[in-house]
């Protein structure tokens, strides 16, 4: 008989595998499959941050693992304790291949975290012009102010990138 917490431990193992960049995709996929067979729920989350395995994989940068989790039922709009979705995470880290996959699977381009920030705010703040371009191509709101009254442009200017993925001259940081 398996211990009572075997499902919880299986989920913890799956989460750790998804955030371990040193593991190969095939090894991580095998861990995911084994954990789901034990009864782990692909949408369970960490107790403190409320991050899911999809958050972890989106940060780690493996498109294959993100695809596997989505095929197993991971929710693209499952937000963590700060209202951050996997698209926020991928945008913050500049993982454009994962961003495209999440958007194709229904992620909301202008989803807001608890500070009213969007993935576009994150991509600009962390200086990922390719991620900005993906989001703008999907209709992200470039005028949206977050809870600090900052637009994505202001974050781009603070990072010193006056174009931040847009065509030259799209935004101007000064007159």
TrEMBL record:
Give yes or no: UniProt keyword Repeat.
Answer: yes
**Where does the source fall among the domains of life?**
Eukaryota
Q: Which key words tag this protein in UniProt?
A: ANK repeat, Repeat
Looking up PROSITE patterns in the UniProt record yields:
ANK_REP_REGION, ANK_REPEAT
One matching Pfam family = Ank_4
Q: Where are the ANK repeats?
A: 49-81, 82-114, 115-147
PANTHER family in UniProt: ANKYRIN REPEAT CONTAINING (PTHR24173), SOCS BOX DOMAIN-CONTAINING PROTEIN (PTHR24173:SF83)
Name of the protein in question:
Ankyrin repeat-containing domain protein
Lineage here is: Eukaryota, Viridiplantae, Chlorophyta, core chlorophytes, Chlorophyceae
